[in-house]
Design goal:
Length: about 240
Amino acid sequence: MRVRLKEKIPGVFWPVHTAIRSGGISEVVAKGGRGSGKSSYLSIELVWQLLRRPDCHAVVLRKVGGTLRNSVYNQIVWAIGELGCAGYFRCTVSPMECTYLPTGQKILFFGLDDPGKLKSLKLPFGSVGICWFEELDQFDGPEEVRNVEQTVLRGGSWALTLKSFNPPAMARSWVNRYALEQRPGKLVHHSTYRDLPRGLLGERFWEDAAHLERTNPAAYRHEYGGEVVGSGAAVFDNL
């Protein structure tokens, strides 16, 4: 089965894919509002990059392990199917992993509420080259994320970190400040539901978004636009 990648990746994400493919990008920070397509894109990019590098494995993380199966695990299984590779992967939930059968490469899933499993990570060969932090804002801060990267991204000549989140409303949130920090090899990308084909999300989604835009513009800008609408500190009315 031949798959045209441009038919699978929405146009808003194509520059990100091109930048990764051309080299020089070691970190992608994908942020945006509800329905922005960032997780779907990153799951396809992760599987695609894995297939291109036969000595590479991937680790996918969320803060709480109990959220893995119904979020990033299902997202990766979907991406495998979208790329026409379902028959080449064995995906299991105990242990939670997806194995590319022709090479033995693995996509492993971990929650940081049990960090011991991550520290005891053993691979049959090669090294972890791709690390995806989903819902980055739920992690404790840049130190926790950095420690994970230093733990899993050891060895190998190539590495790519993917980080995705819906920006919290408050500007003081660590993840909003992190997105503003510049460093070589870091690409920050913002998308919204308006960047995707209308039929992809369905009319009900668009109707709900339009209703909130009319009735509560600030909430709409935050939830659907992924905008930071709050000030640097929270306000408490009855203190």
